[in-house]
Amino acid sequence: MTADLVGLTGHASTTVGETDLATALGSGDVRVFGTPAALALCEAATVAAIAEALDPSTTSVGAHVELDHLAPSKLGAVLGADAEVTEVAGSRVTFRVEAREGDQVVARALVVRYIVDRARFA
After folding, report:
1. Which terminus of the chain has a lower count of CB atoms within 10 Å, N or C?
2. Is the confidence at residue 1, as pLDDT, over 90?
């Protein structure tokens, strides 16, 4: 079931709002896109990458992230993240993610998610 996930891609986008700023998230004192928001954007892209391929009785949950937040983004900036499944080992799914503001890469991440039974996990 999961082996055919390799190569799937997903996209997520956001416009930086007040609640995404480092000052609002407690991750800094500068009014720029906060690292926790960058992580959420990257994870949203991973969820999108495999959502249609999963059986409705399953879902994926985050387990591990390595994130490099490379550049600041100001209030109102439009960001997009693209995720690709790079490896599947049993229920473990690994993604490579890149987030951009236009042509500028603002974050890169390696994200690991596990596919779990929705009812048992909840």
Report:
1. C
2. no
